[in-house]
Specification:
The complex is a heterotetramer, with two copies of chain A (270 residues) and two copies of chain C (255 residues). Chain A is an alpha/beta fold and 270 residues long. Chain A has nine helices and 15 strands. Chain A is globular. Chain A starts with a strand and ends with a helix. In chain C, 27% of the residues lie in helices and 22% in strands. In chain C, helix 1 packs across helix 2 and helix 2 crosses helix 7. The chains are: A alpha/beta (270), C alpha/beta (255). Chains in contact: A-B, A-C, A-D, B-C, B-D.
Amino acid sequence: MAVFLSLREAIARHVQDGQSIALEGFTHLIPFAAAHEIIRQRRTGLHLIRMTPDLIYDQMIGMGCARALTFSWGGNPGVGSLYRLRDAVENGWPRPLALHEHTHAGMAAAYTAGASGLPFGLLRGYIDNGLNAVNPDIRRVRCPYTDEELATVPAINPDVSIIHAQAADGQGNVLIQGILGAQKEAALAGRKLLVTVEKVVERLDTHLNSVVLPGWVVSAIAQVPRGAYPSYAQGFYARDNEFYKAWDAIGKSRERFERWMDVNVLRAAA
Amino acid sequence: MAVFLSLREAIARHVQDGQSIALEGFTHLIPFAAAHEIIRQRRTGLHLIRMTPDLIYDQMIGMGCARALTFSWGGNPGVGSLYRLRDAVENGWPRPLALHEHTHAGMAAAYTAGASGLPFGLLRGYIDNGLNAVNPDIRRVRCPYTDEELATVPAINPDVSIIHAQAADGQGNVLIQGILGAQKEAALAGRKLLVTVEKVVERLDTHLNSVVLPGWVVSAIAQVPRGAYPSYAQGFYARDNEFYKAWDAIGKSRERFERWMDVNVLRAAA
Amino acid sequence: MKHRDFTSDEMMTVAAARLLWNGCVCFVGIGLPSAVANLARLLHAPDIVLIYESGTIGARPTVLPLSIGDGELAETATAVVSLPEIFAYWLQAGRVDVGFLGAAQIDRFGNLNSTVIGPYEAPTTRLPGAGGAPEIASNARQTFVVLKQSPRSFVADLDFKTSIGFGAGHGARARTGARGAGPQAVITDFGLLRPASDTQELQLMACFENVDPQAAVRATGWPLRVAQQLEVIRAPEPEELRVLRELHARRLKGG
Amino acid sequence: MKHRDFTSDEMMTVAAARLLWNGCVCFVGIGLPSAVANLARLLHAPDIVLIYESGTIGARPTVLPLSIGDGELAETATAVVSLPEIFAYWLQAGRVDVGFLGAAQIDRFGNLNSTVIGPYEAPTTRLPGAGGAPEIASNARQTFVVLKQSPRSFVADLDFKTSIGFGAGHGARARTGARGAGPQAVITDFGLLRPASDTQELQLMACFENVDPQAAVRATGWPLRVAQQLEVIRAPEPEELRVLRELHARRLKGG
């Protein structure tokens, strides 16, 4: 059953060194505040999982939180590179990063399998693809009807999944509105689920087919207004595209990155 | 692209003898009007597909439309038997009916595979189950990671899928609200998709995550108010539970059934 | 049995409801299971979670639905999702604590038949079939079966095996891919059966007040074992009956 | 090339947009493909359907999104669905007519690299990676590649094969599980390449006005074949440029 905690307490209680964790949200509702709290609490050795590492994992990788990354597209959308990710991969700075690399379709199938209690996901994919040689997790099964070969990916079941959403009600039911990405699948695939929300309300103002996660699948909820900034929360604030562009210069230099993180994350109040 | 037709024209143009057709809707939004039009147009040799045959297929089977039935639960919900279905299975009246029998989870996986362009669906299911012996379509694959055996079902891709929905807009975009069943999966699995709707509006009054099928996946739309009666359409009319109870006596007798169909379906205006 | 001021259905419903705990996630079908879970919700388990296969999670109906997809369920639910999602993300993923099952036949190991009486290809009675039951039976953390006891329903050999209980017993279920603990309670009009911990054969563990356990044995198509220390299930309390009857009355009105 | 009053990007965008037809279902990524599809929508293809992998179907943005999941896309879409659904029910099911792809490298058979420059384990440049491209490449009915031509990008051998084109050519693609027809058009800053019907090797089929085909050959890391009857792609019309520039201007304002 969902427990309401401060963000600091939620991370302290549920995120441990060495775990596999997924902070999902596809462009929309990226849980930046939760990532910053993990950085402040100096978690290390994490296996980070996310379709699009985005700035959120660029920051966590650059701050040395991660030992491994499962992902499918590692750029700054519409801008260019994630330089902290590249520095870790190309130069092992601040520490080496093992890559478990997929395609979007593969990770979507893996999250879906994880949410579904299946050991693997199935797709028409990874055809004549170099990833087959570098990721031993990509395998094949034969269709029992047509004899075709189809690609498989192992289910992703993070130790902890973390998402940001618009609202929770008193029972901890969580409302997600707008672009969904693989957020629901990642949430349900997690052994634990932490949620940050823009606001807590008495009753969710939902429509019949709104996307709502019931409180009893949520481990802890923290209210964190603007918790997805500089990404966005539909109905609350827009994506700060200028910040995404500005990150290009910040992330490019180790020194400037560390200075920025020190001022804006480490010394920022939770 | 969706074409607006009369129901009569939509069925005449798209439903042919001998086809596999799925009229879906799980308790809610069952496309009775479309079934009645198929009966009036005297289609025969159909392979009917539906999770819950319900009164709609009891009527089609009793009127001799069907040669085969793929299904997973064949009762009158909360009431009892479907006597026309039973009469076909037990006595071959009015003609024999070949059964392709599944579980709900199996059919859900089969529709999902069909909607997904996969040749088969995967599930933890059909364990120590008599259906394995009588339905050769239920097979197994081995997980390439855990070596577990999992059940498979072949994708369902009906020649024609037919659903009822609340509304369509001028572009043929279709809005479904309330209980969804496997309606979206069945709709997208069909080689053709026919939709009946309560009303046609200029713009759908939707919320961001409403369930909408874009007009370009719809073959034809017919406006048929109360087209789901005696099942229901959320926001329009309630399920006529009394009729479902009354059907027990109507369906039990061949003579009474035929009389009822003659008066209420064959001689009714389209 | 002595004259009672409640029916067998009421007795079974109340007894089953008492087995449910607050916060329990129940996968319920229509009819008696739906009444059981809603009764528990209105009595001692306000935070019980009802999942109907039609796609409603956390429905809190004030009237008993006739069908599993009545509008009342959608309107009172925490979430309305697709049926494929219910079976994949919720049942198969192991999020259901208790699945309720009925059947036409049960055997000594809690395996169930809801498919046919007689041979499959030429049945004397064609029953509705599997529905959600087989995967509820294998994927819910445990199942409760509610079924009136008679030699026709409690049989030595099923005509068809629709849903797994303990297979051939003696640990057979654990050797299959079934993940949940199987039928941990069978509520009948005589009392309560539970599996023996070694053989997993169903035993009569408790009887309703004023019920002769030998009557239960006679109503069973196999030599039913009776627990040495048979417990007694107390008759429905007035409050339990009142709430249950109000539920049903609202259904009749709403019809 | 002579002095022109439009950029290479504008020329490529306009040329690619002209290849799209009304009603065409496009799977588009951010950047140039998004501009292409929206330009076509505002010019000659009002009923073009834009699918973004973030989950929006039928988006009709009035400003160009910077990211693939901008709110503008959700607010103007016919439907907003989950990302797993986009890849399964929409792309994999074969509902996409044209998938747009970019890359860092392309080879003569239209295979693409967007993963690494240098060896995978110790890359000199770590690129963003696959994203949706490999399954767009195999499951869309056809793909259009948009990529500036240079010996660094049009290479004899890819450093990594991220997305299938025609494999080793000569029908190799048809022997894989890839379902679509593959890269049927490659739009560069020199002109348009299309696969030869027999070998499936990319050939220069058309050049922009005032472009020397031999310059395109020199910008290619393999001996590029030039069609005997080379077509000319007319320069962007004023109306095309006006609409495109308005799109970009709105993006800059909205940024």
